[in-house]
Design the sequence.
């Protein structure tokens, strides 16, 4: 039987876990910055040991580290030599195809001390992924290729599973764990890390993932299913300009077909979540992003049909509801101060 975190009484069987985080894919570092806003749990809670049952966690992320230069890189060199065990590898940014370039390199981190040449990001993944307990893709670039993998890109950029293989397993038997989003929703990422740390500590079963390797409890519903504006959609009441509180489908919202929980979870402290606060969903968590959602801000083709169908039904329902609304806005007729009892009471 697996202990629930709330009943944890024994220390983790693994005393320390390192998180080696590479942002040297084709990346804007936006996921590292986003994760600093997490609260469920926060990075600080995980690193300072505030959560019961977890091993001690040491984070090595170039955006958030105190160390820099060779001092920072030493953790990666040590991990490669097997001197930094156990560790979880996080990759942020899409992975370029170094096999297609004519010269130079697309992306790299650190220097090969023997040759004096940069160590490519692909080399780092080749060196570290086989030694990692788990490999996590942070953000849509790392998970599926994202913006850098658009049609016409010269680098052949791709996501982690395209690079390592969709059937790839870590030495602990875990598939790649994808937490997409551009950037990743902060709590989605930290909750996934927390789950994996509990799994490492023997306190959680195998992480449940869908076919796109996303945690099922985070990506099992559509934006539309959690949207504050869903009732406007159902009533066929659509915004035609920004600033409206109505459904945004005619302004280009793809929420009905996009797997993402930010309309339920919010962005920071439960606040935000694109359509909730007036922004159309452009499908940034999806493997087909961005190409299959462009041109942004045009009404999605499927949205035209569904909005037309819902429009007729919705107008009728809205009209009927306004009649009912007027009725229930009036008190029952027996509440009066006349000298008679008209409530229907029978002794
Ligand atoms: Fe930046 Fe978005 Fe790519 Fe993350 S997924 S590295 S936020 S472009
Ligand atoms: Fe659905 Fe988008 Fe309309 Fe929200 S704004 S109800 S997600 S179509
Ligand atoms: Fe991305 Fe759409 Fe989710 Fe916003 S609602 S984070 S655009 S998938």
Sequence:
């Amino acid at each position: 039987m697996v202990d629930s975190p709330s009943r944890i009484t024994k220390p983790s069987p693994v005393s320390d876990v390192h998180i080696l985080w590479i942002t040297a894919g084709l990346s804007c570092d936006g996921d590292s910055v986003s994760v600093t806003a997490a609260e469920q749990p926060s990075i600080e809670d995980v690193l300072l040991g505030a959560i019961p049952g977890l091993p001690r966690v040491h984070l090595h992320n170039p955006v958030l580290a105190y160390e820099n230069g060779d001092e920072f890189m030493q953790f990666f060199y040590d991990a490669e030599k097997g001197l930094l065990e156990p560790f979880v590898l996080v990759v942020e940014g899409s992975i370029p195809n170094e096999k297609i370039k004519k010269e130079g390199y697309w992306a790299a981190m650190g220097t090969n001390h023997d040759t004096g040449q940069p160590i490519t990001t692909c080399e780092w993944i080749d060196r570290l992924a086989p030694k990692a307990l788990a490999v996590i893709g942070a953000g849509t670039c790392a998970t599926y290729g994202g913006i850098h993998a658009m049609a016409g890109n010269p680098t052949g950029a791709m996501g982690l599973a395209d690079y390592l293989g969709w059937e790839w397993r870590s030495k602990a038997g875990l598939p790649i764990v994808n937490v997409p989003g551009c950037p990743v929703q902060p709590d989605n990422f930290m909750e996934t890390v927390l789950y994996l740390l509990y799994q490492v500590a023997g306190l959680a079963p195998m992480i449940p993932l869908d076919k796109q390797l996303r945690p099922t409890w985070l990506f099992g519903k559509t934006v539309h299913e959690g949207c504050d504006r869903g009732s406007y959609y159902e009533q066929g009441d659509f915004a035609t300009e920004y600033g409206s509180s109505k459904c945004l489908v005619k302004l280009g919202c793809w929420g009905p077909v996009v797997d993402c929980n930010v309309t339920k979870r919010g962005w920071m402290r439960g606040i935000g979540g694109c359509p909730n606060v007036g922004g159309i969903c452009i499908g940034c968590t999806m493997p087909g992003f961005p190409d299959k959602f462009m041109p942004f801000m045009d009404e999605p083709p499927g949205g035209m049909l569904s909005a037309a169908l819902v429009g007729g039904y919705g107008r009728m329902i809205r009209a009927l509801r306004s009649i009912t609304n007027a009725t229930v806005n009036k008190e029952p007729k027996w509440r009066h101060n006349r000298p008679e009892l008209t409530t229907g009471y029978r002794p």
